[in-house]
Amino acid sequence: MSDVSETSAGGNAIPTETENLARSVVTAEADPSEMTEFAVLPKAAYTTEEYLQVENRRLFSVSWMFATFARHVSEPGDVVPVTVQGVPLFVVRDEEGTLKAFHNVCSHRGSQLVCEMQKERKTIVCPYHAWTYNLKGELSWTKHFAGVNATDLPDRQQNKLGLKEVAVAQWLDFVFVNFSAMPESFAQQISELEQRWADYDLSSMTYGSSMRYDFDANWKLIVENFLESYHVPFIHQTLNTYSPFSERYQIQLSDRLLGIGQGRYQPEPLHGKRLPSWPMRDGKENIKAEYFSVYPTFLIGVMPDHLFAWVLEPVSAGKTVEHLHFYFVGEEGAHAEKFAPHRAQTLENWKQVNDEDWEIIQRMQAGMQSPAFPHPLLSRHMERNINAFQTLIRTHVGLPGPAATTLVS
Ligand code: FES
Ligand SMILES: [Fe+2]
């Protein structure tokens, strides 16, 4: 893990608990002018539709975006329609077992090809005039196009009319797509995180359930809230009892993998029992939790006995849908009756945390409208991750309006 850099509230390496205490004393005595960080995005980046359009063009259209779950396309012939940033696609496992993604639109007159999940398909048939594509996206049947009962279009024409393919990648139960013609490698983007979590045996991760939150807020405010623990003692008083603020640290695995670590994540056992834990390859007992933003819109966290994946769907500058998906350890963790109360408790805990965040994030969006609020202010100690996230957005998307930098101190 030599290429992994970690930053704590005040330094470069993960602090021990004692160092953490020492740092908070140093922080309290520090010169305030050294305690602020550049806030590199002005508030127009959160409030204007123009900026979201630029994000769509320069960021989402060249990034790995969550599309669907691998368990829904596990067998050859499985087909799943999805919409990613408003674009209809479908994901399919072809007859050789290769995962593929295509634009979900017929080359003839543009009918949507697939509207619901399908199984055991060998072809994709357009409902309108029955143009038929194989699972590699090649157009294979166009009868009557050249006249009643006439044979299909000549091969040389059909060859040009196949479906438009989109890059696809699978990681754990998650399928991502990338609209770029030359996408960066997903495996490379995720490699530091895979390496970091290599001790977890996640092969038994089993889907449990999902929740949905509709935010009146810009998607970036949700990511930024996810990336700092400064608000935990104030907003999440219950969470702070089993995942304390004092044992949290910021992590920067790469510029696109920012996260938060928690030395201890231990809700009280229920009826003296806990959910089954992830088997650890190093054989050690694990009580920590970590979560990461997989740039730009996918958030994932692993706790000792469950895992979450939260997907952000930016709808407009001031509206975002957040889909929360929860996984447990094996069939037993996910489905055994004896653990039903424990799963319910886990989900209730996250619901409480997310309800609390939902409220405050929307307040921030409302505050952004105020003419009396010129610019966000960031703590160098507590909100370094946010600075890193905003820097990346600024690199990929740019600034709204003319470039300007404001140092707030
Ligand atoms: S629109 Fe698909 S066959 Fe005509
Ligand atoms: Fe929070």
UniProtKB/TrEMBL annotation:
<dbReference type="InterPro" id="IPR036922">
    <property type="entry name" value="Rieske_2Fe-2S_sf"/>
</dbReference>
<dbReference type="InterPro" id="IPR015881">
    <property type="entry name" value="ARHD_Rieske_2Fe_2S"/>
</dbReference>
<dbReference type="InterPro" id="IPR017941">
    <property type="entry name" value="Rieske_2Fe-2S"/>
</dbReference>
<dbReference type="Pfam" id="PF00355">
    <property type="entry name" value="Rieske"/>
</dbReference>
<dbReference type="InterPro" id="IPR015879">
    <property type="entry name" value="Ring_hydroxy_dOase_asu_C_dom"/>
</dbReference>
<protein>
    <submittedName>
        <fullName>Aromatic ring-hydroxylating dioxygenase subunit alpha</fullName>
    </submittedName>
</protein>
<dbReference type="InterPro" id="IPR001663">
    <property type="entry name" value="Rng_hydr_dOase-A"/>
</dbReference>
<keyword id="KW-0223">Dioxygenase</keyword>
<keyword id="KW-0001">2Fe-2S</keyword>
<dbReference type="GO" id="GO:0051213">
    <property type="term" value="F:dioxygenase activity"/>
</dbReference>
<feature type="domain" description="Rieske">
    <location>
        <begin position="66"/>
        <end position="177"/>
    </location>
</feature>
<keyword id="KW-0520">NAD</keyword>
<keyword id="KW-0560">Oxidoreductase</keyword>
<dbReference type="Pfam" id="PF00848">
    <property type="entry name" value="Ring_hydroxyl_A"/>
</dbReference>
<keyword id="KW-0411">Iron-sulfur</keyword>
<keyword id="KW-0479">Metal-binding</keyword>
<keyword id="KW-0408">Iron</keyword>
